[in-house]
Structure prediction request, 381 residues.
Amino acid sequence: MHKAVGAFSSLLDAFKMADVSMRYSLFVPRAYNLALSLGFQPGKIMPSRAFCSDESQGYPIILITKHFGTFPFNHGMVGGIVATDRHGPYAHHGQDLILIQASHVGYDPETGRFGTYRRLQTENQNETTNCGKICGALDWYINEYEFAKTNILLKLEDGVHKIIIDNQLSNIDRQQGLILKLDKFVKTDDRGIPIPEVSMSTSKMFNALPELVELLGHDKWTTGSTTPIDHALYPDLFYFRHITSQEDEGSDHLEKNLINAMPYIVYSKWPALAAAQANTQVEFDRTFRSITLDHAYTGKKVLFISGLNVDISPQKDQIFPLTKFIPWAAFVQDENGNQQTWEQAELFEKLMQQSEENPDQINLEEAIELMQGFKEIKLPF
Ligand SMILES: [Zn+2]
Prediction:
């Protein structure tokens, strides 16, 4: 783990992964039975899903259809963002309402990597990014971080710890880019501008603050040669500025969700996983508030579950991914307006208390066959 602490660090650290993950084929019947335990009435439950548009999300949707006996309302936008302006129409479609929101991340069991997924329908069954929207948004930030890691150099000169910072990185007025918290690196004047020892053509050399030397470790500094700061550029030492649309649920909503967590995401071993996790956390917080404010839910039973869909890349003879669900949090409201929030451990415990059996589940093949047997209805034109 990194040495930095911060508000987002503690939120990200609060998310347990391996201990609470479960196969989707077990999660959905448990979610159904959890809804029944809250008094939801079989046959009157309308599910909705807020998933990314990626076809990898199809298998969870099929399982929801099978166990709830109806196709779930589409509450989601690319990247796993909740379309909160659809609360009204959704709430009108059922008596008891269960919303499932999840960001997603691919996982390749052969390489043990997150963020990739085998697309069986491509010419050569190539692996591509997953979630593609999240990975696409991360590229810019990861490039900025890579540049900073290699263009901040450390060296020991006559026993003094020196740091050489690229001019672009020491410019605090930049509108976009990775912005160093320079007062954690070097002495700054009262306007926050760093005071260099030596100015060179593309960089400046400073005396490193003793606190920085402690944080990075004495062994990072060597006499004679310069050493890039590399992975010792901890998330607490920088942040990002990026000009994007600030529109709610607009094309840059995902980046807006992630920008404060971004130092932790780019630093993480698996940025695509950390980003999907952070997005789920931000979306849960935002969506539960929007549910409590929306009159469409007044007098309704509501169960809102948020989590992470881990799409295990399908092998050659598999039609679907072996998706796992990692629950994060839930919000519950009864018809009298009593509301509760369940944190991760509580939600997991409640799910695990439920049976994996669902006698109400439908046989999809039979249902489709039955539909084909009905007399055709002719349209009046
Ligand atoms: Zn996606």
Q: What stands out?
A: The pocket of zinc ion is lined by residues 52, 54, 79, 104, 131-133 (CB under 6 Å). The two ends are 66 Å apart (CA to CA). Confidence is low (pLDDT under 50) at residues 1-5. The chain has two domains: 13-131+270-373, 141-241.
